[in-house]
Write a structure and sequence with these properties.
Elements: E1 9-12, H1 15-26, H2 41-52, E2 57-64, E3 67-75, E4 92-98, H3 109-122, E5 129-132, H4 139-147, E6 151-157, E7 162-169, H5 170-177
Parallel strand pairs: 4-5
Antiparallel strand pairs: 1-2, 2-3, 3-4, 5-7, 6-7
């Protein structure tokens, strides 16, 4: 990872083929906010098989030179994650992302990842606004979210965490990044 402005492509996660890689990512101490620290390989495989079978939730790898370098989950907040906690608008899409731990971090890599994810989401003309709900204590992701145009709305209580509900429209993303979506 030497480029500070890498080009990414996306592919759907294959739960059976990709479970080992996903397991190494989600159980690493860096991924504490992913809340799968104690997951066994079978648990990760099962979780991503459930996502693969869910019409309202999708898991994608971000690829660089054909190799997975981050994970993105896209979900419909009217049906997953935020049901009863937020009134979704037409065109809302929810998003989670994870960059794996590395011994050779590259300055700006994670920001390039979230920028690529947002641009990818906004290539869908039906997407008007991206919704995120990171843990209130995850200050690093709050800064990344702000850098790409997210505006915090309020704290919400989810069963597994206290979260900061934030939104980013296509226009806010462009204003923050200059990336046309």
């Amino acid at each position: 990872m030497t480029s500070q402005n890498p080009t990414f492509t996306f592919r759907t996660v294959d739960p059976l083929r990709d479970a080992g890689l996903l397991h190494s990512w989600v159980t690493h101490p860096k991924a504490a906010f992913w809340m799968m620290q104690d997951a066994r390989l079978e648990d990760v495989e099962r979780a991503y098989m459930e996502i693969a079978a869910d019409e309202h939730h999708h898991a994608l790898f971000g690829l660089r030179h054909g190799e997975p370098v981050f994970l993105m989950e896209r979900y419909d907040p009217a049906h997953r994650e935020l049901v009863g906690l937020h009134e979704p608008l037409p065109g809302d899409v929810g998003m989670h992302f994870l960059t794996p731990a590395t011994d050779t971090p590259v300055h700006g890599f994670t920001r390039s990842v979230i920028t690529a994810i947002m641009a990818h989401l906004f290539t869908d003309p039906s997407v008007e606004r991206v919704v995120v709900e990171p843990d209130v204590h995850n200050k690093a992701v709050h800064a990344l979210n702000e850098a790409v145009g997210f505006v915090p709305d309020r704290e919400i209580e989810k069963p597994e965490k206290k979260a900061l509900l934030s939104f980013c429209t296509r226009e806010q993303f462009f204003a923050a990044t200059g990336v046309a979506a």
